[in-house]
Structure formats: structure tokens, C-alpha cells
Write a structure and sequence with these properties.
The protein has helices at residues 2-29, 41-106, 160-167, 229-233, 258-262, 298-307; strands at 111-114, 118-126, 131-139, 145-149, 171-174, 178-181, 186-189, 194-195, 198-199, 211-216, 221-224, 237-243, 246-249, 252-253, 270-274, 280-285, 312-316, 324-326, 329-330, 344-348. Strands 1-2-3-16-15-17-13-14 form an 8-stranded antiparallel β-sheet, covered by helices on one side. Strand 13 (246-249) and strand 14 form a beta hairpin. Helices cover 35% and strands 26% of the residues. By secondary structure, it is of the alpha+beta class. This is Phosphodiester glycosidase family protein. Residues 168-349 form the Phosphodiester glycosidase domain. Keywords: Glycosidase, Hydrolase. It comes from Chengkuizengella axinellae.
Length: 350
């Protein structure tokens, strides 16, 4: 029984011994904490105020530094803008000088149309044997010039004035030659013709001195004889028409076919040309006038074009087809006594 009693009480005795020993260890290991000195509230407030004053002083120093930096930046920006403007003026100066030389040769414009799209100037031309007009055009955007089919349909015809009125253009000039189908009464553009970047009736290789002339997708004049489509496609034509002959290329007179020297020798003429700054020049001459002067010869126009400083020049359809319309008025006196209906027109938009 003693053994049984000991075995029964043993766990309880063990627990009591463990609790007693743990209490002793906790008392022994408890740290000896020293009292925290007390700080007055007034002292803490004074210290905080000193810190705030110091921070405010630093902020003022930073603001002053930033203000100085902004002043330096603004002065630098103004100086940079002045340098850019000066540089731009210097870059533009040769172009302005060149353009002024052109204008000085043409004289004083009688009409001037200017907008974000276009700068168009009309000049009178008076020579001993003919008179006419020069139209100098600076195409500022891709929307400033286009070539259209009459009534926007192949085989139709309309006067340049009608085309101008129909499209809302500010000016118009007759474009390429044409061929009539007497069976149907339709009037078709001559040979290779491109409108809105597409061939109207397909490509036709140059023959009998026919050329193609028009503008590329950058608004620059392109032209010449083309014997395969790839050569023309490589120039990215946007629009253009066909006629004969080429008058000037690379500031050099081109040979004029004998037929065009005599049939007719003098007539109303329409010419498209360009300058090295890509401005365009159109020459339109009158036919019979009140004192018997009758038109211009192509050699005379070659001389005039070189005098005016053009790079390339192409003879467009003339005679009764010659048409110049500006601001809704016909400028030239048509050889037929009235404007001739045509299949293609160069138009200009404000």
C-alpha cells in the first residue's frame, strides 16, 4: 500500500515541485529596472519649437534655391528660343532670297491668294509678239492642288470654270490633251492619265514625243518620256496628264518637233514649269488680240521660261483649250470665243 500510495501521489508532488522552482527562477531573472527621469512638458515644447524653426529656415533656403534655378531655366529657355529663331531665319534666308529673285523677274502681282494651303500670285506678261499671264504657286500642303476628270467621270467634259465652281477651287488651269469619240460624243483624256494615284485608262508608253507630267506624292513636279510603267511608278505619281512637247529639262532647251514649230507657229499656250524650291509656274498666253498680235511660239516661250529661271517646263494643251480661271473669273480670252469643255483640269484649293 505504501508503494501504491507513493506511485499515486508522485505526479502531484512533481507538479508542485516544478511550480515552486519556476517561481524562484522568475524572481531571480526579473531585470533590475532603473527609474526613468521625468522631463518637463515645457522643455519638450521648447525643443520642438527649435526644431520647427530650423526646418522652416531650411525650407526657405530650398525655396530660394529653386527660385534661382527657375530664373536660370527661364533665361536659358529665352536664349535657346532666340538662337532657334535666329538659326531658322538663317536657314530660310537663302530660300527667301531665291524667291525674291523670282518675283523680281515676274514683276508686281496683280492678284495674290494666300492661305495655310497655298500661296498663289498672278502676274501679267507683255512681250513684243504676245501677251499673257504667269501664275506662281507655292503648294504648302498636299491638299492645295489636284487634277480632276470632268464631272469626275471618264468620257465627260466640262470647262475649267465649271470644274472650279463644281469643286469649290480658287483657281483652275486646263491640263492634258484629249481625243474625241465621234460615235458616242465622248471626250477622253489623251494617253497616260493618272487621277488620285490611279491610272485612268492604264499605262501607255510614250510615242511621237508625248510626255507625262504631274505631281508626285510629295507635291513635286515630275515629267518626261516614259517607255515602261515601272519607270513612272518609281516616281510615285499622284496625278498627271499627257501632251507634247517637253520645252525645258534641267534648265536646258529641248528640241521641238518640226510640226510644233509651224502647226501652228503662234497660238494661245498653256505651260507648266517648276523652280528648284518646288514652286510651280504656269504660263498662259493669249491668242488673237485687238491689234492683231496672235499668240506665242514655243521657241519664244522657251526663252521666256529660261529668263524666269525655271528648271523644267512642259507644254500643255493650248489653242482653244487654254483656260485660266481665278476666283471664279476667266482671266484669259479663250481663242474659241468661249471656254472649251475639256476632260481634265488642274485645280487649286485655298
Amino acid at each position: 500500500m505504501n508503494r501504491l500510495l507513493i506511485l499515486t501521489l508522485a505526479p502531484f508532488i512533481g507538479i508542485m515541485v516544478w511550480l515552486y522552482s519556476t517561481t524562484i527562477l522568475m524572481e531571480i531573472s526579473q531585470p533590475n529596472l532603473s527609474p526613468v527621469p521625468s522631463v518637463s512638458i515645457n522643455q519638450q515644447a521648447n525643443d520642438l519649437l527649435i526644431d520647427l524653426n530650423t526646418a522652416e529656415s531650411h525650407i526657405q533656403e530650398i525655396e530660394s534655391s529653386l527660385s534661382n534655378l527657375f530664373d536660370i531655366y527661364n533665361k536659358s529657355a529665352d536664349t535657346a528660343n532666340q538662337l532657334v529663331n535666329t538659326a531658322s531665319a538663317q536657314v530660310d534666308k537663302p530660300g527667301i532670297i531665291y524667291d525674291n529673285r523670282i518675283i523680281s523677274k515676274l514683276g508686281t502681282p496683280t492678284k495674290h491668294i494666300q492661305s495655310e494651303n497655298i500661296d498663289l500670285k498672278l502676274f501679267n506678261i507683255t512681250e513684243d509678239t504676245y501677251k499673257g499671264y504667269a501664275v506662281k504657286i507655292d503648294l504648302k500642303t498636299d491638299d492645295a492642288m489636284d487634277m480632276v476628270l470632268a464631272k469626275d467621270e471618264l468620257g465627260k467634259s466640262e470647262t475649267t470654270l465649271q470644274a472650279v465652281q463644281r469643286t469649290g477651287a480658287i483657281a483652275g488651269i486646263n491640263a492634258g490633251g484629249f481625243a474625241d469619240d465621234w460615235r458616242t460624243g465622248k471626250r477622253y483624256p489623251l494617253s497616260t492619265t493618272i487621277v488620285d494615284g490611279s491610272y485612268v485608262t492604264g499605262f501607255e508608253a510614250s510615242f511621237k514625243d508625248l510626255f507625262f507630267v504631274g505631281l508626285d506624292d510629295e507635291g513635286k513636279l515630275i515629267g518626261g518620256n516614259f517607255y515602261n510603267r515601272a519607270d513612272l511608278d518609281n516616281l510615285s505619281p499622284q496625278f498627271g496628264a499627257t501632251f507634247v512637247p517637253i520645252l525645258i529639262q534641267n534648265q536646258t532647251k529641248q528640241s521641238i518637233p518640226s510640226k510644233w514649230l509651224t502647226s501652228p507657229k503662234r497660238a494661245a499656250r498653256t505651260v507648266i514649269a517648276n523652280y528648284k524650291n518646288d514652286h510651280l509656274l504656269f504660263i498662259v498666253t493669249e491668242g488673237q488680240d485687238s491689234i492683231g498680235k496672235y499668240g506665242a511660239s514655243l521657241p519664244e516661250l522657251q526663252d521666256k521660261l529660261l529668263e524666269l529661271g525655271v528648271i523644267d517646263a512642259y507644254n500643255l494643251d493650248g489653242g482653244g483649250s487654254t483656260s485660266l480661271v481665278i476666283n471664279g473669273s476667266t482671266i484669259n480670252r479663250p481663242s474659241d470665243g468661249k471656254l472649251r469643255p475639256l476632260p481634265t483640269h488642274f485645280l487649286f484649293f485655298k
